[in-house]
């Protein structure tokens, strides 16, 4: 999510074009680093979302160059496979203030949700990464943002980043109690829906605007795979101008993958 001051890749970062001859997206790699951070503040955003502000001097060189970056939250509990880790989006970063903000959806009983539900100022958390950034230019003729509640932090950050005059369509499957007001200078066409079926129906009913656009989608694995097929196979959207990510998967305790 957007920093209070612009963040760019450090000079040591490696930059390469994303796969696909038509893509204008860049992949930037960052030096992987673990940071021991302390909770500075906890805020209740909606009935099922908590915002945790972390702080620490080690954030002085933290880099988050894209709205859908991911850091690893590393918890004390151990599993048979080693330390328990979960992927989360940096909602906001302020390097000058040494602050990193993470938003937690309070659904289920996983280690991240359990930790966030009890987090208080003074608690500590180990954070690793981000390993890299997938930088999507802001100057497309239009942008489509689609997903469920797990995508809200990334969507909110992207909307804050986009410049005045940018055209954005957002299709968001979020319970009424957790819907929020977004801050953006862009021209936003926002559609709230209830359930994956309504999300896919809204995508099928959507008439994609003219010009070069980019679609970003994140949420449950099966729903995002279906959404990608609708946009690329049914609507003919450029397969090099879409990023669809599975932030979770029904029946799996921990799942994160980019869908091709």
Task: Please tell me about this protein's structure.
The protein is 16% helix and 40% strand. It is an alpha+beta fold and 260 residues long. It has two domains: 26-132, Translation factors (Elongation Factor Tu (Ef-tu), domain 3, Beta Barrel); 136-259, Nucleotide-binding domain of ferredoxin-NADP reductase (FNR) module (Rossmann fold, 3-Layer(aba) Sandwich), CATH 3.40.50.80. Strand 5 (71-79) and strand 6 form a beta hairpin. Helix 3 (196-205) packs parallel to helix 4 (221-234). The radius of gyration is 18 Å and the shape is globular.
Total domains, how many? 2
What helical percentage do the residues reach? 10-25%
Corresponding CATH architecture of the largest domain: 3-Layer(aba) Sandwich
Order of helices and strands: EEEEEEEEHEEEHEEHEHEE
Oligomer, anyone? single chain
Strands, count? 16
């Amino acid at each position: 999510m957007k920093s209070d001051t612009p963040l760019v890749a450090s000079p040591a970062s490696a930059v390469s074009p994303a796969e696909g001859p038509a893509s204008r997206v860049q992949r930037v790699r960052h030096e992987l680093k673990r940071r021991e951070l302390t909770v500075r503040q906890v805020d209740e955003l909606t009935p099922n979302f908590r915002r945790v502000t972390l702080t620490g001097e080690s954030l002085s060189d933290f880099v988050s160059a894209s709205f859908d970056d991911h850091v690893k939250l590393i918890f004390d509990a151990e599993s048979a496979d080693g330390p328990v880790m979960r992927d989360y989006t940096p909602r906001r970063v302020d390097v000058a203030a040494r602050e990193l903000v993470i938003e937690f959806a309070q659904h289920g009983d996983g280690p991240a949700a359990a930790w966030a539900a009890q987090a208080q100022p003074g608690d500590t958390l180990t954070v690793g990464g981000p390993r890299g950034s997938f930088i999507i230019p802001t100057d497309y003729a239009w942008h489509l943002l689609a997903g469920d509640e797990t995508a809200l932090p990334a969507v909110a950050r992207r909307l804050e980043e986009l410049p005045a005059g940018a055209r954005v369509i957002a299709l968001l499957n979020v319970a009424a109690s957790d819907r929020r007001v977004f801050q953006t200078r862009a021209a936003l066409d926002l559609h709230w829906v209830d359930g994956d079926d309504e999300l896919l129906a809204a995508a099928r009913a959507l008439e994609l605007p003219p010009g070069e656009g980019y679609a970003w989608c994140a949420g449950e694995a099966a729903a995002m795979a279906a959404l990608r097929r609708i946009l690329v196979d049914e609507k003919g959207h450029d397969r090099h101008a879409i990023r669809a990510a599975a932030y979770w998967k029904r029946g799996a305790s921990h799942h994160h993958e980019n869908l091709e």
